[in-house]
Design brief:
439 residues
Length: 439
């Protein structure tokens, strides 16, 4: 029987849990970028070629991602403005143009990878009957790309109707992708002891360097650093609209509470993305490490084709569904990030549907030319890795300024961790360049 005190605590806990749920969503939207088709390409190539060796890259990339996304969210909550808007407010005009150019290159690489992945997922799922009726692979891929475009437009229209509906759909996509890979892991019977060892013990050499950097670029993605700060704004605006903005003390209290809930959101979403990424690599290591005939340029198609005979048709179906859901959701997020980038840096209104139409063109060209989607995916992830410092350095500068953040300014330990992460990423990129040009 509940005592009055216990009953009071129980009634206090219920609103708190309900309130926590109302704040869940932004980090899940951001996490979609961490399980996009670029991750499929990088993780499956890494697992198939090097087994469990690179699991540590995913582990440390996830820790970096949680810190970076927390800082981005904190900037959005503390200032009420996105990272691009803050860059425009606090940096010189030449610096803003340079940062915008780097951000747009990252956004274009992201859009290309995610749209190609969605089209490839649709091709793997529905292309068989169309190929049997005489359509070419290029024709089926182009049809899949057009259908992907229509579906992404539908998701963007849903976002225009309300951010909670959109966040709910994205959370459902993330859960479905996770379920598909839980099935894959159950079927493939990995070596868990070896997987645990390589998760905790780093190992890197010349042969694994390129894949390691692409995996890093596929996990800590620059466009979502810009986006996460903007995803904070709808709830901030809702709070202001309720008329509480006249009381600065209540605004600060709300921001602290919001940041605390968002930290929980980030921990749940980012660790979920880490599980999915690790499951991709583990599945590839267990299923494909010793399989002959896997071509790195067509490994996603080869993986889908090979999973059926190895683990049954359901495994192949789960793989295709996960890739399609990943491509559709991340492609939508990429468009939203691109809009945040151009509107924030340049202070202009840019129609989101027009941006989607523009960003479809490079992917259609790649498909029409018959280029390898996987090779383009890996190249785009390497490009993204080089774009990370252009988002991270401004983020760390801004979150370290008391004039910008006030009482939310980074602590010394947070600043040290952030700059260490940035230095590691830049160091890996320089090492990759050195290896590339020295052979």
């Amino acid at each position: 029987m509940l005592t009055p005190a216990t009953n009071h605590q129980a009634t206090e806990a219920k609103p708190r849990l309900r309130e926590l749920w109302t704040y869940f969503g932004p980090a899940f939207v951001a996490s979609v970028a961490y399980i996009d088709p670029g991750n499929f390409g990088a993780n499956i190539v890494g697992g198939a070629q090097y087994g469990y060796t690179l699991l540590w890259v995913l582990f440390w990339s996830n820790l970096m991602a949680m810190l970076v996304q927390y800082l981005s969210a904190k900037l959005g909550i503390a200032t009420g403005r996105s990272l691009p808007q803050n860059c425009r407010d606090h940096f010189s005009r030449p610096m803003v143009w340079m940062l915008w150019t780097a951000a747009e290159i990252s956004a274009i690489a992201t859009d290309l990878a995610e749209f190609l992945g969605a089209a490839l997922g649709a091709y793997l799922l529905f292309g068989g009957p169309l190929l049997a009726r005489g359509m070419t692979q290029t024709g089926v891929m182009l049809l899949a790309a057009l259908l992907t475009t229509v579906f992404v437009f539908a998701l963007l229209a849903l976002n225009q109707r309300g951010f909670r509906h959109f966040e709910g759909i994205i959370i459902a996509f993330v859960c479905l992708i996770g379920l598909c890979y839980a099935v894959e892991i159950f079927l493939v019977h990995p070596n868990w002891a070896l997987a645990a060892h390589h998760t905790l013990v780093p190992s890197l050499n010349r042969s694994t360097m390129y894949i390691a950097v692409t995996m890093l670029g596929a996990t800590v993605m620059p466009h979502v650093i810009y986006l996460h700060s903007a995803l904070m704004q709808p709830r901030m605006e809702g709070f202001v609209e309720r008329g509480v903005s006249v009381d600065p003390a209540r605004i600060t209290q709300f921001r602290r509470r919001y940041l605390r809930f968002e930290l929980i959101d980030i921990l749940v979403a980012m660790n979920g993305a880490w599980f999915i990424n690790s499951a991709m690599l583990v599945m590839a290591a267990a299923a494909f490490m010793h399989q002959p005939g896997l071509n790195p340029d067509t490994i996603l198609e080869d993986a889908h084709r090979t999973l059926g005979p190895l683990l049954g048709g359901f495994a192949a179906l789960a793989f295709a569904v996960a890739l399609l859901c990943s491509g559709l959701s991340s492609s939508t997020i990429g468009v939203l990030a691109g809009q945040v980038i151009i509107e924030g840096f340049l202070a202009i209104q840019f129609p989101i549907y027009l941006r989607r139409l523009i960003t479809v063109i490079p992917a259609l060209i790649v498909i029409a030319l018959g280029l390898s989607p996987v090779k383009i995916l890996l190249l785009s992830q390497a490009v993204l890795s080089f774009g990370i410092p252009f988002a991270l350095v401004p983020l760390l500068i801004l979150t370290g300024r008391e004039t910008v953040m006030r009482e939310f300014r980074n602590l010394r330990v947070t600043a040290f961790a952030g700059w260490t992460v940035t230095a590691l990423i830049i160091g890996l990129n320089v090492l990759l360049l050195w290896q590339t040009f020295t052979g």
